């Protein structure tokens, strides 16, 4: 037998194992593949760029009231309603149902839920199609931040990467708040807060169980499930959310059953539209702010908007109106109704009537009386003549074309008699009244190319309702006119008050107007108020106040057309008194200041008992010279030691020239001693501050100056 004999194995040699090389080669390929995949993934992530959260800042601008209630939102630049909201501002049951339905492990996973991925993959392999997704709430936020139409594996991978990045950048609560802000709810509605207002007319913190379940269901298919277009699909989706919530232990079966009985809304509601004019003005002045907080009281604003709409509609067609409410202590505007209906084109509803120049009629008379009281020309109990008078070519008449004869200044103002007011203004001089109103911050317009005449006292000027209301506040603050505050999120500038009159004169006017006869719908003596009716029945005004609030009302046609029967007392005054009743507190009178002279006509100093005609005063003045205060000069600052503790306070010397003795000196409306046969006297101040010094001679001629005592 021939052949090759098998070689005996060499002692100590290893046997060959070819599979070992296969294993090593496969492992090497896996390592290389893993490295290549890692590098590819790294390049994929790098190509994505940094996480961009700018979309979270692209929200609707919202205007809030002083307590944070929504007055009016504005759409984003893209025309979407996306109201800012946080998880803390949403009903907790909504949040519980949302997590149970969308992402049960939201609080545990790092942005991507591996268990959900495995479940979804297994269902896909076993059924051959997608049964349930693996998208987490964080991944949905990532998709909303970077929306893409494609549903490829690359898009899903991108969402996962962004979800992990979000979890590193934001807390779970911040991620949840981002979802609540960006989630779609059909049409141009984004975010749960906008959806809650559109479908239920309420803030999301006040949702019912059924409402919360519907809002959980809508973002999955916002267009097909919109309740205003597909109520059956919306109800079915809501009920599935309720069923899932029961299985998750979020709701009890009885609670869910009761929620299923609630109907779904079938129409969209308008978003809040309170204070539209003031909101637009605030946004125009501060276009970069996303949250603007005003001083308004949202509940009072809504109530007064409804009141004005109702009353103006009943008063006649084409009429508009406005209401302004001011907090006297702070100067903050509590309500600003610019028109009865912002969208009523026939009433020019988009025009803010509270800022339009209109003729105030008799609403300016209280300021004439205040200056007359301050200058010592009259006292509330001074007797005046309400008889026909002529002032050059000007012949004023009363509204009712009748005359009362001799009346007190109090009755003349309460009954809004024209002749006594014009007589006082002739003593003061129209330029002085105009200068005082403008110096107090009111934008008063006079006819062009004409000097201010006596007619300005009866409404021959233009003034805005907001300015008139601000001037009336002075009667509650001792003659001081505050700056109006509209923004609750900004500090008022100090030292910006203006002086309209002295405290005693302001209180005299307030005391008189509190006794004005009220309209038929109100009780007497509750508030101080004055009405006004412009020439030709074009404007009806009413302004009133108590210790806490001042309210001004205007009614008229925006095109300045005449309206027969449009009288302030009949149209505007009832609105004023109803507005006060809606504030919710009982009116309080203005307390009398120190130095107020409360007396009958018989107890007044003789020159204050009656107001004499100009002719007799001019004749007397021509013989003895005009009455003038020689010392102190107007605007002087006199150091009497009143501002330094421990130092004796000196008396202020008072000197006059001209006039017919005896003279009566008054400081802040209070007589200094009795009638003086000489033209000098003195006054002992009770402290530092401003003082109004007046002098009156035997014929009623007066002069006044303002000084500061240090």
From TrEMBL:
<dbReference type="GO" id="GO:0009252">
    <property type="term" value="P:peptidoglycan biosynthetic process"/>
</dbReference>
<comment type="pathway">
    <text>Cell wall biogenesis; peptidoglycan biosynthesis.</text>
</comment>
<keyword id="KW-0378">Hydrolase</keyword>
<dbReference type="InterPro" id="IPR036950">
    <property type="entry name" value="PBP_transglycosylase"/>
</dbReference>
<dbReference type="InterPro" id="IPR012338">
    <property type="entry name" value="Beta-lactam/transpept-like"/>
</dbReference>
<keyword id="KW-0808">Transferase</keyword>
<feature type="domain" description="Penicillin-binding C-terminal">
    <location>
        <begin position="625"/>
        <end position="707"/>
    </location>
</feature>
<dbReference type="GO" id="GO:0030288">
    <property type="term" value="C:outer membrane-bounded periplasmic space"/>
</dbReference>
<keyword id="KW-0472">Membrane</keyword>
<feature type="domain" description="Penicillin-binding protein transpeptidase">
    <location>
        <begin position="321"/>
        <end position="545"/>
    </location>
</feature>
<keyword id="KW-0645">Protease</keyword>
<dbReference type="InterPro" id="IPR001264">
    <property type="entry name" value="Glyco_trans_51"/>
</dbReference>
<dbReference type="InterPro" id="IPR011815">
    <property type="entry name" value="PBP_1c"/>
</dbReference>
<protein>
    <recommendedName>
        <fullName>peptidoglycan glycosyltransferase</fullName>
        <ecNumber>2.4.99.28</ecNumber>
    </recommendedName>
</protein>
<dbReference type="GO" id="GO:0008955">
    <property type="term" value="F:peptidoglycan glycosyltransferase activity"/>
</dbReference>
<feature type="domain" description="Glycosyl transferase family 51">
    <location>
        <begin position="78"/>
        <end position="244"/>
    </location>
</feature>
<comment type="similarity">
    <text>In the N-terminal section; belongs to the glycosyltransferase 51 family.</text>
</comment>
<dbReference type="GO" id="GO:0004180">
    <property type="term" value="F:carboxypeptidase activity"/>
</dbReference>
<dbReference type="InterPro" id="IPR050396">
    <property type="entry name" value="Glycosyltr_51/Transpeptidase"/>
</dbReference>
<keyword id="KW-0328">Glycosyltransferase</keyword>
<keyword id="KW-0511">Multifunctional enzyme</keyword>
<dbReference type="InterPro" id="IPR009647">
    <property type="entry name" value="PBP_C"/>
</dbReference>
<feature type="transmembrane region" description="Helical">
    <location>
        <begin position="21"/>
        <end position="42"/>
    </location>
</feature>
<dbReference type="GO" id="GO:0008658">
    <property type="term" value="F:penicillin binding"/>
</dbReference>
<dbReference type="GO" id="GO:0006508">
    <property type="term" value="P:proteolysis"/>
</dbReference>
<comment type="similarity">
    <text>In the C-terminal section; belongs to the transpeptidase family.</text>
</comment>
<dbReference type="InterPro" id="IPR023346">
    <property type="entry name" value="Lysozyme-like_dom_sf"/>
</dbReference>
<dbReference type="Pfam" id="PF00905">
    <property type="entry name" value="Transpeptidase"/>
</dbReference>
<keyword id="KW-0121">Carboxypeptidase</keyword>
<dbReference type="Pfam" id="PF00912">
    <property type="entry name" value="Transgly"/>
</dbReference>
<dbReference type="InterPro" id="IPR001460">
    <property type="entry name" value="PCN-bd_Tpept"/>
</dbReference>
<keyword id="KW-1133">Transmembrane helix</keyword>
<keyword id="KW-0812">Transmembrane</keyword>
<dbReference type="Pfam" id="PF06832">
    <property type="entry name" value="BiPBP_C"/>
</dbReference>
């Amino acid at each position: 037998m021939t052949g090759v004999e098998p070689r005996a194995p060499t002692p100590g040699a290893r046997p060959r194992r070819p599979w070992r090389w296969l294993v090593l080669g496969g492992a090497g390929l896996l390592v290389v593949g893993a490295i290549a995949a890692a590098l590819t993934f790294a390049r994929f992530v790098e190509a994505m760029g940094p996480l961009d959260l700018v979309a979270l800042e692209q929200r609707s601008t919202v205007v809030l009231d002083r307590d944070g209630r929504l007055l009016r939102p504005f759409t984003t630049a893209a025309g979407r309603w996306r109201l800012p909201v946080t998880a803390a501002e949403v009903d907790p049951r909504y949040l519980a149902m949302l997590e149970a339905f969308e992402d049960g492990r939201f609080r545990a996973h790092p942005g991507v839920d591996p268990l959900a991925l495995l479940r979804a993959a297994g269902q896909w392999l076993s059924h051959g199609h997608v049964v349930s997704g693996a998208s987490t709430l964080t991944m949905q936020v990532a998709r909303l931040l970077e929306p893409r139409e494609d549903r490829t594996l690359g898009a899903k991978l991108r969402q996962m990467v962004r979800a992990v990045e979000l979890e590193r950048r934001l807390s779970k609560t911040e991620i949840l708040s981002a979802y609540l802000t960006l989630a779609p709810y059909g049409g141009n509605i984004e975010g749960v807060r906008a959806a809650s207002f559109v479908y239920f007319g309420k803030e999301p913190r006040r949702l019912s169980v059924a409402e919360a379940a519907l809002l959980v269901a809508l973002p999955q298919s916002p267009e097909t499930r919109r309740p205003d277009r597909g109520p059956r699909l919306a109800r079915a989706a809501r009920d599935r959310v309720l069923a899932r919530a029961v299985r998750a232990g979020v709701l009890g079966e009885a609670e869910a059953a009761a929620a299923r009985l609630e109907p779904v809304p079938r129409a969209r509601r308008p978003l809040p539209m309170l204070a539209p004019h003031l909101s637009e003005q605030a946004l125009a002045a501060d276009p970069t702010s996303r949250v603007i907080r005003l001083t308004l009281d949202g509940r009072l604003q809504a109530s007064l908007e409804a009141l004005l709409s109702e009353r103006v509609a009943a008063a006649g067609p084409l009429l508009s109106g406005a209401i302004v409410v001011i907090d006297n202590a702070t100067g903050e505007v509590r309500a600003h109704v610019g028109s009865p209906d912002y969208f009523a084109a026939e009433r020019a509803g988009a025009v803010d009537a509270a800022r339009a120049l209109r003729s105030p009629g008799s609403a300016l008379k209280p300021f004439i009386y205040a200056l007359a009281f301050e200058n010592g020309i009259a006292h509330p109990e001074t007797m005046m003549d309400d008889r026909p008078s002529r002032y050059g070519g000007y012949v004023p008449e009363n509204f009712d074309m009748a005359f009362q004869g001799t009346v007190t200044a109090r009755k003349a103002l309460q009954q809004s008699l024209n002749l006594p007011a014009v007589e006082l203004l002739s003593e003061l001089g129209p330029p002085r009244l105009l200068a005082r109103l403008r110096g107090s911050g009111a934008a008063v317009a006079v006819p062009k190319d004409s000097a201010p005449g006596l007619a300005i006292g009866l409404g021959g000027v233009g003034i805005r309702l907001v300015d008139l209301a601000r001037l009336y506040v002075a009667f509650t603050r001792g003659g001081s006119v505050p700056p109006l505050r509209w923004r609750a999120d900004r500090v008022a500038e100090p030292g910006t008050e203006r002086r309209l009159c002295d405290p005693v004169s302001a209180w005299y006017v307030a005391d008189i107007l509190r006794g004005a006869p009220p309209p038929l719908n109100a009780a007497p003596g509750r508030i101080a108020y004055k009405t006004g009716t412009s020439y030709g029945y074009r404007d009806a005004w009413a302004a009133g106040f108590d210790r806490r609030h001042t309210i001004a009302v205007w009614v008229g046609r925006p095109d300045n057309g005449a309206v027969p029967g449009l009288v302030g007392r009949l149209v505007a005054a009832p609105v004023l008194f109803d507005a006060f009743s809606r504030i919710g507190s009982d009116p309080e009178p203005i307390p009398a200041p120190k130095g107020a002279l409360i007396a009958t006509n018989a107890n007044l100093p003789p020159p204050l008992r009656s107001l004499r005609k100009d002719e007799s005063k001019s004749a007397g003045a021509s013989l003895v010279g005009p009455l003038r205060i020689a010392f102190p000069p107007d605007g002087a600052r006199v150091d009497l030691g009143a501002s330094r503790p421990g130092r004796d306070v000196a008396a202020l010397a008072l000197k006059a020239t001209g006039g017919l003795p005896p003279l009566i000196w008054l400081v802040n409306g209070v007589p200094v001693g009795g009638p003086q046969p000489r033209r000098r006297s003195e006054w002992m101040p009770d402290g530092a501050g401003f003082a109004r010094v007046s002098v009156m001679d035997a014929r009623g001629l007066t002069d006044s100056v303002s000084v500061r005592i240090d």
